Automatic annotation (TrEMBL):
<feature type="coiled-coil region">
    <location>
        <begin position="227"/>
        <end position="261"/>
    </location>
</feature>
<dbReference type="InterPro" id="IPR047332">
    <property type="entry name" value="RUN_RUFY2"/>
</dbReference>
<dbReference type="InterPro" id="IPR037213">
    <property type="entry name" value="Run_dom_sf"/>
</dbReference>
<dbReference type="InterPro" id="IPR047335">
    <property type="entry name" value="RUFY1-3"/>
</dbReference>
<dbReference type="Pfam" id="PF02759">
    <property type="entry name" value="RUN"/>
</dbReference>
<keyword id="KW-0175">Coiled coil</keyword>
<dbReference type="InterPro" id="IPR004012">
    <property type="entry name" value="Run_dom"/>
</dbReference>
<feature type="domain" description="RUN">
    <location>
        <begin position="37"/>
        <end position="169"/>
    </location>
</feature>
<protein>
    <recommendedName>
        <fullName>RUN domain-containing protein</fullName>
    </recommendedName>
</protein>
<feature type="coiled-coil region">
    <location>
        <begin position="298"/>
        <end position="405"/>
    </location>
</feature>
Length: 437
């Protein structure tokens, strides 16, 4: 028996886990509510499974200390391939609590799920296999068909809404372990799950029917208005048709009268055929001309009726165009009102800021005037102090000079006293030395 390729088995296992995780997440979200938060266990397991799928076959990159494997590299590449992903990349890099590339990749996955763009981002990534080969081995899940299948399954997540708080969550130190017990359920739980799915489907159908009913009511109201307008135009056409019928009846009476006259003329011509042959031919020509005029009038009436029908169709088309233009104008008026309110709020804020800046300028001007007055006073005090310092310096110099003169006079007097007091030179030297000290 031939052994299977371990990498193929790993890809199959990850694909099955992704199927179970996405299916369970969608079914549970439809059963208990479409809005999910960060503490929802199926949602946490989904992120763990996606992390394992993205890590499969990832090449090791040599860092300063050792080799590391991170999925932030290929996810960061999405910005170059999909311009709309630049905003999510900038948001992840601006988050203050993220310190590792793995934490940034986890935050990226959560933001992509909230934007309902995870399938689109990863689809444009797996298409560029030449660029992915820089990050993944050739046998990696993202390089094989299993990656495309998982991206296709991710489209189903667009039916749910996720409300995740990424800013305060510790994404760097989380341990990504798949909890298989969530997907090993007994028959009773499966039955309850199926019933919940059926109930959710019935509720969805009810909501769809209600929405369809609302749309039909709006359509019926618009149709009623169109019917009213058409009835008005129809009454006008009926009146015109009645007038045309009256004209036709008159023409038929005239035609009948002409026919009776023709019969009388024929009877007279039969009686007086030879005598009034020329007169009969003249009357016959007159009758033909009158018959041709009647046919022309009948054709004109039919042509007018056909034109009125075409005019009615044109009026209906014009009415539908006018209704569409009315809806577009109402939408444009709402957008203009919203823009005007926003600009008014901005103008009020700018006016408040201008008043605050004016108050600050006045306060700064007052402080500047006070500081200038204080500076003048301090300059005057410094000038007085310098004058006093100069006087004190001069006095000290005079005192030092007087002290020196006094010391010289004292030494002279002491020497003279020593000389007069003792005749021994040694005793004189000692006395002079003591006096100098």
């Amino acid at each position: 028996m031939a052994t299977k390729d371990p990498t193929a088995v790993e890809r199959a296992n990850l694909l099955n886990m992704a199927k179970l995780s996405i299916k369970g997440l969608i079914e549970s979200a439809l059963s208990f509510g479409r809005t999910l938060d960060s503490d929802y266990p199926p949602l946490q397991q989904f992120f763990v499974v996606m992390e394992h799928c993205l890590k499969h076959g990832l090449k090791g990159r040599k860092s300063f200390l050792s080799y590391n494997k991170t999925i932030w590299g290929p996810l960061e590449l999405v910005e170059k391939l999909y311009p709309e992903a630049e905003e999510i990349g900038a948001s992840v890099r601006d988050l203050p609590g993220l310190k590792t590339p793995l934490g940034r990749a986890r935050a990226w996955l959560r933001l992509a799920l909230m934007q309902k763009k995870m399938a689109d981002y990863l689809r444009c990534l797996i298409i560029q296999r030449e660029l992915l080969s820089e990050f993944y081995e050739y046998h990696a899940l993202m390089m094989e068909e299993e990656g495309a299948v998982i991206v296709g399954l991710l489209v189903g997540l667009n039916v749910i809404d996720a409300n995740l708080c990424v800013k305060g969550e510790d994404l760097d130190s989380q341990v990504g372990v798949i909890d298989f017990s969530m997907y090993l359920k007994n028959e009773e739980e499966i039955g309850n799950k199926e019933r919940n799915v059926q109930v959710a489907a019935i509720l969805d159908q009810k909501n769809y029917v209600e929405e369809l009913n609302r749309q039909l009511n709006s359509t019926v109201s618009s149709l009623h208005s169109r019917v009213d307008s058409l009835e008005k135009s129809n009454t006008k056409l009926i009146e015109e048709l009645a007038i045309a019928k009256n004209n036709i009846i008159k023409l038929q009476e005239e035609n009948h009268q002409l026919r009776s006259e023709n019969e009388l003329i024929l009877m007279r011509t039969r009686q007086h055929l030879e005598v009034t042959k020329v007169d009969v031919e003249t009357e016959l020509q007159t009758y033909k001309h009158s018959r041709q005029g009647l046919d022309e009038m009948y054709n004109d009436a039919r042509r007018q009726l056909r034109d009125e029908s075409q005019l009615r169709q044109d009026v209906e088309n014009e009415l539908s165009v006018q209704v569409g233009m009315k809806h577009e104008m109402e939408l444009a008026m709402k957008l203009l009102e919203k823009d005007i309110h926003e600009k008014q709020d901005t103008l009020i804020g700018l006016r408040q800021q201008l008043e605050e800046v004016k108050a600050i300028n006045i306060e700064m001007y007052q402080r500047l005037q006070g500081s200038e007055d204080g500076l003048k006073e301090k300059n005057e005090i410094i000038a007085r102090l310098e004058e006093k310092t100069n006087k004190i310096t001069t006095a000290m110099r005079q005192l030092e000079q007087s002290d020196n003169d006094l010391l010289t006079q004292t030494r002279t007097i002491a020497v003279s006293l020593v000389k007069s007091a003792s005749s021994d030179p040694q005793d004189q030297y000692k006395l002079v030395k003591d006096i100098s000290f």
